[in-house]
Amino acid sequence: MKTVAILGSTGSIGRSAVEILDRAREDFAVVALAAGENVSELRTQLVLFPGARFTLRDASSVDALVDGSRALAGRAAGFGDAGIEALLRDTRPDIVINALVGVSGLLPTAIALELGCTIALANKETLVAAGEIVTRLAGGRPDRIIPIDSEHFSLARMLRGHRAETTEIVLTASGGPFRGRPFADLAGVSVAEVLNHPTWRMGPKVTVDSATLLNKGLEVIEAHWLFGFPYEAIKVVVHPQSVVHSLVRLRDGSLIAHLAPADMRLPIMSALYDPEMRAFPWPSLAVEDLGSLEFRPLRPEEYPAFALAREAAAAGGTAPAVLNAADEAAVDAFLGGRIGFLDVVTWIEEALGAHERRALGGLGDVLEADRWTREYLARRHGETAAPRSA
Ligand SMILES: NC(=O)c1ccc[n+]([C@@H]2O[C@H](COP(=O)([O-])OP(=O)(O)OC[C@H]3O[C@@H](n4cnc5c(N)ncnc54)[C@H](OP(=O)(O)O)[C@@H]3O)[C@@H](O)[C@H]2O)c1
């Protein structure tokens, strides 16, 4: 029996994790839940897992959830970053599912690594902003960080047993809702159009990133830190069906492809049971129904956000943290209706252009680059750049 914490339990990944863990009570005990502001969903989860302690982003949300109940008050671990830290230190789970969104997932990852937990990591921003530091904190034990991302789950499956012979890895990209349309023509697209992803139902931030294709750039950086391949050996192809999630090329030139349903419960379940493999209780792919599978090159010049991510990755140091922070600020402004879709890319470009890249010594340098970026964009764009929660 392993103990599990779910950070971001009310989100898209978090709710899928809850569904899996609810059915796997003989193998796992949920001891900790962290959410932002969705009090009603978290209350339901606390009924489902009566042994779990919890935290929320703000004191007011904790008060709303406790609502005078002494039993619930006794299960609260505080709020904000300190609340998550207390939650992890008090419960010391075997596995921490980090399904937070954005760089807010970074410190919880660092704390969980310090406590010796295994991390089932959906929060790719952790590795984008601070991959160099986080892998160092994992003490050369990459098996302590298990990816919850369809492409990286798929790569991990194929690399097991083939790592030494693999010369190149290939991530697939669906192309998002605007595949085939020139990026420059997307100035007027609405938030609703952007959030209408053709193959995946996900939280808003990663859905916007999928529409700009920055997400695929973030995933290239994530793959680099997870599996240790140089950036030249990480390719991306557009594959609209989202059936093949990745391919690996072996030394003899042959390719192995990994096919799986577009269902995040598979990577989540796999991360929980790793290194064991269990039967998946939901529908698998039927080979007879696969139909045609298409692949075409992803041309960076067609997707400027992807190209910027590649540049930041190659620059290294603080550049990926700036890329990530600028994107978070810009996506927030776009979702809040304060800027247009193309401005997201402009903001990233501006921040990367103005930033003086530095080498990373520790987590403080990452957080400083993150703070610098948000302040730079706030100075440049004033109220438009103000976070929605402010
Ligand atoms: N969704 C997918 O299919 C998918 C696939 C691959 C990778 N990922 C990655 O997984 C991560 C999560 O994505 P998602 O789609 O699940 O996002 P999401 O639906 O927006 O969920 C985010 C979760 O984080 C919580 N949260 C946000 N800020 C918080 C804070 N300061 N303190 C505590 N909790 C906070 C939210 O709480 P409230 O809702 O209560 O505010 C929610 O539970 C992202 O890094 C994403 O890139 C997602």
Short characterization:
The protein is of the alpha/beta class and 390 residues long. The chain contains 16 helices and 12 strands.
Structure explained in plain terms:
- By secondary structure, the chain is an alpha/beta fold.
- The protein has 3 domains: 2-147, 3-Layer(aba) Sandwich (Rossmann fold); 149-262 and 283-301, no CATH class; 316-390, Rna Polymerase Sigma Factor, Chain: A, CATH 1.10.1740.10.
- 46% of the residues lie in helices and 15% in strands.
- It contains 16 helices and 12 strands.
- The protein has helices at residues 12-22, 39-48, 59-66, 70-75, 80-91, 106-114, 124-137, 150-159, 191-194, 204-212, 214-227, 265-273, 304-315, 319-335, 341-354, 363-381, and strands at 2-7, 28-34, 53-56, 76-79, 95-98, 118-121, 145-147, 166-173, 234-238, 244-250, 255-259, 296-297.
- It has a 7-stranded parallel β-sheet with strand order 4-3-2-1-5-6-7, with helices on both faces. A 5-stranded mixed β-sheet has the order 11-10-8-9-12, covered by helices on one side.
- Helix 5 packs parallel to helix 6 (106-114) and helix 14 packs across helix 16 (363-381).
- The longest helix is centred in the last third of the chain and has 19 residues, at 363-381.
- The relative contact order is 0.11.
- The structure holds NADP nicotinamide-adenine-dinucleotide phosphate.
- The site of NADP nicotinamide-adenine-dinucleotide phosphate has 29 residues, from helix 1, helix 7 and helix 10.
